[in-house]
């Protein structure tokens, strides 16, 4: 039996369109399933907890929505061994990118039904879990501004989630101030006199496909960290196009780190978002949680 949780409002109604395609295929193939539509993170989490507490043996839990919808279900899914199946229907869809899930609905469904369950790590922060990335500072503020904007809905309508993020960068540049930042990574301390942002990643990309940590792997038990520091606004602005292809790592104002335990302190309180959702603010400590999730992936990964 397969279980589906559908955020029909994700991607400006894209979630509902994706679900109709899934439902038609399931019916044509006589595959047993249950589903629910969700209007909030709390509703989705409660529904999943109730379903997982029954005696039904679930083959996988399919989530139709964006990274935020998936994020809300992590507490219920972690350590259960029940695979997560991703159906990208949001604006960022970095979970799908991180696990190489096709954007085409029928191909994503094939992975749920015939793919390979892959053990994956989580990022643990303040008792909460994140699957893709923890954004701290400028990048978190960009995501927050995008989430609260009108242009996000317009971009989603035309399938341009990445464009919304680029607009958010220019929007945030007007008001954000860099500040001193200290990062302790597996016991080694790094000081930055004027840091813009720190990204702690479990997968390669965030922000709708920006390859911030190109060497990150979701199952290696290690977190990849990218710190952008001591650069001008112009240099920061010119950095973002390089993130599309992960070509920023050799720039003199970019520091790449790797570790299992990461602590971040800042002279100014910095917003921290996990999977694009508000988690906490600095100071914070994040750790790798190896093998806490199972995700359906292609056999070719």
TrEMBL record:
Keywords in alphabetical order: ATP-binding, Kinase, Lipid biosynthesis, Lipid metabolism, Magnesium, Metal-binding, Nucleotide-binding, Phospholipid biosynthesis, Phospholipid metabolism, Transferase
Pfam families in alphabetical order: DAGK_cat, YegS_C
Necessary cofactors: Mg(2+)
InterPro entries tied to this protein: ATP-NAD_kinase_N, Diacylglycerol/lipid_kinase, Diacylglycerol_kinase_cat_dom, Lipid_Phosphate_FormReg, NAD/diacylglycerol_kinase_sf, YegS/DAGK_C
GO-annotated biological processes: phospholipid biosynthetic process
Keyword match Ligase: no
A molecular function GO annotation: metal ion binding
Domain DAGKc: 1-129
One term under GO cellular component: plasma membrane
Gene3D superfamilies, alphabetized: 2.60.200.40, Probable inorganic polyphosphate/atp-NAD kinase, domain 1 (3.40.50.10330)
The keyword Lipid biosynthesis appears for this protein: yes
The organism's place on the tree of life at top rank: Bacteria
Protein family membership: Belongs to the diacylglycerol/lipid kinase family.
Database matches in NCBIfam families: YegS/Rv2252/BmrU family lipid kinase (TIGR00147)
PANTHER family on file: LIPID KINASE YEGS (PTHR12358:SF106), SPHINGOSINE KINASE (PTHR12358)
Protein name per the record: Lipid kinase, YegS/Rv2252/BmrU family
Species: Fontibacillus panacisegetis
